[in-house]
Amino acid sequence: MTLKELLKDWISNINMNSFNDNSILGLALDSRDILKDYVFIALAGAKQHGLIYANQALDKGACAIVYDPTETDGLLANDENIAQMIAVDDLAMKLGDIAARFYGNPSKSMAVIGITGTNGKTSCSQFLSQMLDDCGIIGTLGWGEWNNLHKTINTTPDALETQRILAELLKANKKTVAMEVSSHGLDQGRINGVIFKGAIYTNISRDHLDYHGTMDAYLKAKLLLLNKAGLTFVVVNLDDLYSDQIIAAVPENVAIWGVSVKGKTRSDCTCIIAENIVNTDDGIEFNLHCRGNKHPIKAPLYGDFNVENVLTVFTAMLAMGVAESEAIKKLGLIKSIPGRMERLGGDGIPLVFVDYAHTPDALDKVLASVKKHCKQNLWVVFGCGGDRDKGKRSQMGRIAAQRADHVIITDDNPRFENAVDIVNEILTGCKDIRNQIASSSVEVIQDRAEAIQSVLARASAKDCIVVAGKGHELYQEINGIRMNFSDHQIINDALTARTR
């Protein structure tokens, strides 16, 4: 593809005939990734403009620099003969379409299902990849296929990386892609250029208000998924507070499917219901009601919210054209996800659940669910991440003190914040609720490994322990440095020491 072919729809006031006809071999946002005859994409970032790396890109063989003309004073290359300098207004929002063209519009040849919401995106994407034939994944745990993932930096990669990954999945003969779509990804145009067959809304609750500012702005970002090209169906959690607003925004001629564990139905959508939910030592059991049929379901998953996730992926399968009997059969093969209500221990030692819960709603649901498995006391070990929404910290402290018998506040990923300040903000919520519930105990052990080890040494065999906030993560970030750290490993080592 030549530069002229790539950019013909996005540039004006420039002589297209002045472009050379040489083929471009790649696109890159990072000057370190540039190879000969690559195009360097220089975006105007929040902290710096990509053009400050223009010379490095040119030295590495960039044949052209496509840049956002915002705030470029003093940044343009002096010798325009070295490479073609091409300004594209609002480049970040157009990059998805540009990249889609470069990679041959891969999403046109696959059925992409976008999964958005505050909680449950990862579980639903992973479950769908297990359930659907030849289904790829893009999300928090990485991209690729179930049990064989490559790392990603963000839940939703940048627009250029998204299209490259889709092209790789198409090359690997994937027919479907389950893609987690974050509010940041939607707001920043990272999924522009992607054609979606379906959209899933798991739930909406407080998260990322450090970025969006208000819940209205957060919801508005989430609703952008409904405007994407190709959409044929939407799956909505009818029990969610924002479900009416989501459904009101669904375009005409898009089929609406609803799921509920509370018996909710609507006349304008096909509704799938779960009833008689039972939590057992082996997972969850419930009756699934679909179009007049009742199906008993057993799954090796824990937590009432996983009933919602199972309903959601089942419903998505139906929306994709899978026969009801086949979809029920596939649910019998579902497997748990690392770091998502992952069960450890049991059999004479405390049951321990590792979960990624890092929002008030997620922590509340996890603790409420684990309480149902608890024969004696419920312990929770958690913290809050630094440089993120501060308002949720006291809320999570209040929920922990209300739900658990023993609360241990520890460090999560402090990042560049003072970890003591984070703990004190969590404690304000704990103190609010302790005036009402005197039986709950709250303590602070800031060293996360020590906190986990301490609880596992003290808890009785009939107690349950929740270690929340980091889930699958294999690091702890302090002052910009990521150090190796795994809740799962610390727990396993402590359980082993306990049984010696």
Describe this structure in words.
The chain is built from 16 helices and 23 strands. The chain is an alpha/beta fold. It folds into three domains: 87 residues, MurE/MurF, N-terminal domain (Udp-n-acetylmuramoylalanyl-d-glutamate--2,6- Diaminopimelate Ligase, Chain: A, domain 1, 3-Layer(aba) Sandwich), CATH 3.40.1390.10; 231 residues, 3-Layer(aba) Sandwich (UDP-N-acetylmuramoyl-L-alanine:D-glutamate ligase), CATH 3.40.1190.10; 158 residues, Alpha-Beta Complex (Protein-Tyrosine Phosphatase, Chain A), CATH 3.90.190. The strands form four sheets. Strands 8-7-6-9-5-10-11-12-13-14-15 form an eleven-stranded mixed sheet, with helices on both faces. A hairpin with a 2-residue loop joins strand 14 and strand 15. It is globular and about 75 Å long. The termini are far apart.
Task: Classify the helix fraction into a percent range.
Answer: 25-40%
Instruction: Write the CATH homologous superfamily of the largest domain.
Output: Mur-like, catalytic domain
Number of helices: 16
Helix/strand-derived category reads alpha/beta
Number of separate structural domains: 3
Secondary structure layout:
Layout: H1 3-7, E1 26-28, E2 38-42, H2 54-59, E3 64-67, E4 84-87, H3 91-102, E5 111-116, H4 121-131, E6 135-139, E7 142-145, E8 148-150, H5 159-171, E9 176-180, H6 183-187, E10 196-201, H7 209-212, H8 215-223, E11 233-237, H9 243-248, E12 255-260, E13 270-280, E14 283-290, E15 293-299, H10 304-319, H11 324-331, E16 342-345, E17 351-355, H12 360-371, E18 378-382, H13 391-403, E19 406-409, H14 419-434, E20 441-444, H15 448-458, E21 464-468, E22 475-478, E23 481-484, H16 487-499
Parallel strand pairs: 1-2, 2-3, 3-4, 5-9, 5-10, 6-9, 10-11, 11-12, 12-13, 17-21, 18-19, 18-21, 19-20
Antiparallel strand pairs: 6-7, 7-8, 13-14, 14-15, 16-17, 22-23
